[in-house]
Write a structure and sequence with these properties.
The chain has about 250 residues and is α+β, with helices and mostly antiparallel strands. About 40% of the residues lie in helices and about 20% in strands. It has a six-stranded mixed beta sheet with strand order 1-2-3-4-5-6, sandwiched between helices.
Length: about 250
C-alpha cells in the first residue's frame, strides 16, 4: 500500500507545473489549529493534484502529506522546520532542530578533524557543515531545472528554492529488519565518529525514536515545482514532546 502511495506521489510530481493557483478556494478558508496544521484537504478528482493524495496546510502554506493516525503532526512540523532552516539559510534554526548533545559533539569533531584541511578554511565547524548542506540543496535544484551554477546558460539562477510539499511515511522494512535495527544502523556512523556507543547514549536520554522516509518538493526560480529529495530516511529523538534530529 505504501509503495503505491509513493509511486503515485512521484509520478504526480513529474507533471507538476504552475500549480500555485490550484486549490486556492479550498485553501483560503483553512484555519490552522493548535496542532500547527489545518484540516485535511482532498483535491478534486480529475485535478492535477488528485494523484498526490490528501494533505494538510500549515502556517507556512506548505502542503504536508502523511497519515496522521500513525505520524504525529508535531513530527511532520519538526521535519519541515529542519529543512526550512536550509531554505532560509538560518543556522540558528538549524541548531534548534538538532539534539543539543549531537550539535556540540559534532561541532567539536569537525573542528578537530577538518579545520585547516583547505586553503580557504582556517576552521571547519558545524556552521561550515550547514553551509555546505545549503549549497548542496541549491545544486540539487539547479540540476532539477536543467541549469548549472558554473554555466553561462543558467539564466542567472542561484538554486534558491521555496519548499511547497513534504511527504512523510513510515519506512518499508526488508525481511528480518526491524525499526530498531534500522535506527541502530542509522547511528552506526555516529558511533564511529564519536568513538562510543552513541546510539545507547541517545536512547537513554530520549523518550522515544521516530523513523521516517520523506520526500521534498520545492518551487525553483523558474516558477515550477521540482522534487529535490526523494525517499530519504531520517531519525528523530523525542523528548518531552519535542523532536530533534542528527545531521
Amino acid at each position: 500500500m505504501k509503495l503505491k502511495k509513493v509511486t503515485a506521489f512521484l509520478v504526480g510530481i513529474v507533471s507538476l507545473t504552475c500549480l500555485a493557483s490550484c486549490g486556492k478556494n479550498a485553501e483560503s478558508s483553512v484555519s490552522i489549529g493548535e496542532n500547527g496544521v489545518g484540516e485535511i484537504i482532498t483535491p478534486d478528482s480529475g485535478s492535477e493534484e488528485y494523484d498526490l493524495g490528501s494533505y494538510r496546510l500549515d502556517k507556512n502554506g506548505i502542503k504536508l502529506y502523511y497519515d496522521d493516525s500513525d505520524i504525529p503532526h508535531e513530527l511532520m512540523l519538526a521535519l519541515e522546520n529542519y529543512f526550512l532552516s536550509f531554505q532560509n539559510e538560518d543556522f540558528e534554526a538549524y541548531k534548534n532542530s538538532l539534539a543539543s548533545d549531537y550539535a556540540e559533539r559534532y561541532d567539536n569533531y569537525l573542528r578537530e578533524n577538518y579545520s585547516g584541511s583547505s586553503k580557504n578554511e582556517d576552521e571547519y565547524t558545524l556552521q561550515t557543515s550547514f553551509e555546505v548542506q545549503c549549497s548542496n540543496l541549491r545544486e540539487r535544484m539547479l540540476n532539477e531545472i536543467g541549469s548549472d551554477s558554473e554555466s553561462e546558460s543558467n539564466k542567472g539562477y542561484s538554486g534558491k528554492f521555496e519548499i511547497t510539499r513534504i511527504r512523510g511515511e513510515r519506512p518499508i522494512f526488508s525481511e528480518g529488519e526491524t525499526e530498531e535495527s534500522r535506527i541502530k544502523d542509522f547511528f552506526s556512523y555516529l558511533d564511529n565518529v564519536f568513538d562510543m556507543d552513541y546510539y545507547n547514549l541517545v536512547k537513554e536520554q530520549a523518550d522515544s525514536f521516530e523513523y521516517l522516509t520523506f520526500f521534498i518538493i520545492a518551487k525553483g526560480e523558474d516558477g515550477e515545482e521540482h522534487r529535490i529529495i526523494s525517499e530519504v530516511d531520517i531519525v528523530f529523538a523525542e523528548k518531552d514532546g519535542k523532536y530533534y534530529t542528527f545531521g
